[in-house]
Amino acid sequence: KRKLQLSPEQCSNFYADQYGKVFFPNLTAYMSSGPLVAMVLARHCAVSYWKELLGPSNSIRARRTHPHSLRAIYGTDDLRNALHGSLSISSAEREIRFMFPEVISEPIPTGQRARDYLNLYVKPTLLAGLTALCKEKPADPMTWLADWLIEHNPNKPRLQHHITEEE
Fold first, then answer.
1. Which of 14, 36, 40, 78 is paired with 97 by a 20 to 30 Å CA distance?
2. Contact in structure between 62 and 75 (CB atoms under 8 Å)
3. 31 shares a domain with 73
4. How many domains are there within the chain?
5. Among 11, 2, 85, 70, which residue's Cα sits nearest to residue 36?
6. Across-strand partners of 3?
7. Among residues 44, 66, 68, 84, which one is catalytic?
8. Is the same domain home to 142 and 91?
């Protein structure tokens, strides 16, 4: 999540695929008129799920056809529709790089690479956590396991603090 304000030039670059359309000048003027919040959403089928939550891009149409969608609730018209959503995974990747240039995004492993990663890094920790969960039998197993995984994260940074006595 990042709060920022884009210049008209940055908005023109972000919406370059809309260049030449009648609404382009109004779009860039509106999008650069104040601060915005950019977010990266991560979940299975994130792009399609987010598009479903957003509803149609025209907020007036969204009120008629998808009254509980975010654009129906927060948008005012077809230009000021309150929220943006990437059209595809490739556009999401491009837009994430645009809004978060300091973030390093790596390709998500698939197939055998994904299985190898899970077997090497995820399964051992998860198995140990689930075993401890079965032994402990806590009242709230989900919260207990979440806390256990945070505590036993093998990638957790370990800081060495050396306390010296003052003379």
1. 78
2. yes
3. yes
4. 2
5. 2
6. 37
7. 84
8. no
pLDDT > 60? residue 10: yes
Burial class (CB in 10 A: 0-12, 13-18, 19+), 19: exposed
- Cα of 22 vs its chain's centroid, Å: 30
Instruction: Write down the residue that tokens 């056809």 correspond to.
Output: 65
Q: Is residue 104 part of a domain?
A: no
Is residue 84 annotated as a catalytic residue, yes or no?
A: yes
Q: What is the mean pLDDT of residues 141-149?
A: 94
Domain with residue 146: its CATH number is 1.20.890
Domain that holds residue 141: 111-152
pLDDT in the model for residue 159: 59
Other CB atoms within 10 A of residue 52 CB: 12
Paired tokens of 34: 């104040």
